[in-house]
Design brief:
Blueprint (H helix, E strand, L loop, with lengths): L1 H89 L4 H22 L3 H4 L4 H14 L5 H14 L8 H9 L4 H7 L4 H21 L2
Length: about 220
């Protein structure tokens, strides 16, 4: 009886093992898959972390480069500001500098006028050298005097001086230097407004005609 009992117990144990074996095998595979999944996920996360770190490092380098470029731009801007300040200081013109500049510009305009109309001086009963020299002398006292004003004063003195001794070229130039017009200057020298306008228009016509016919 004891032998039969042991045999039955052994058979029952084997049967249980056979029934439980598939379940154990499935659990073992599931555990292995979980471990591999965990390892794969961990590796993936680690690689992504490394890539993120590299990208972050590149972003940091770009940020540094941007900062350097910004610094260079700031330095250039500062240099530009200093240049503007220098230009501003250079453009500060003293009254004497302005007078010299106006004197030089007006003298150059007179030379062009005489060169463009070489016969004008002769038609006005004078010479180009006399007009040029007299105008340059007048510019010394009045740098803003125009060449046309000087020629007009010369013609008026020629026409009016014989009957009006106080009408001279220097007297007319002095009135212009005081800020008066030619008409106002003639009135201050004794002419009526109408006579002053007539004399002024006559001189302007003569100058215009001399300029036109001397081309």
């Amino acid at each position: 009886m004891k032998g039969i009992t042991r045999t039955l117990a052994l058979m029952a144990t084997v049967t249980l093992l056979l029934v439980a074996a598939p379940n154990l095998y499935a659990q073992m595979r599931s555990g292995s898959g979980g471990q591999r999944g965990s390892q794969g996920t961990g590796q993936g996360n680690g690689q992504q972390g490394q890539m993120g770190g590299q990208q972050g490092g590149m972003g940091g380098q770009q940020g540094q480069m941007g900062g350097q470029q910004g610094g260079m731009g700031g330095q250039q801007g500062g240099m530009g500001s200093r240049g503007q300040m220098g230009d501003g200081m250079g453009s500060m013109e003293t009254p004497m500098d302005r007078a010299n500049r106006m004197r030089s510009e007006n003298a150059e305009c007179a030379n062009r006028e005489l060169n463009d109309h070489p016969q004008m001086a002769t038609r006005l009963n004078t010479s180009a050298d006399e007009l040029r020299a007299g105008y340059q002398a007048a510019l010394a006292g009045n740098p803003s005097l125009k060449f046309g004003q000087y020629v007009a004063a010369t013609r008026l003195a020629t026409h009016l001086g014989a009957t009006n001794p106080n009408i001279t070229r220097n007297a007319i130039l002095a009135g212009l230097a005081d800020g008066k017009s030619i008409g106002q200057t003639l009135q201050s020298l004794g002419f009526t407004k109408h006579d002053a306008q007539d004399a002024k228009k006559r001189a302007e016509r003569e100058i215009k005609e001399a300029r036109r016919t001397s081309r």
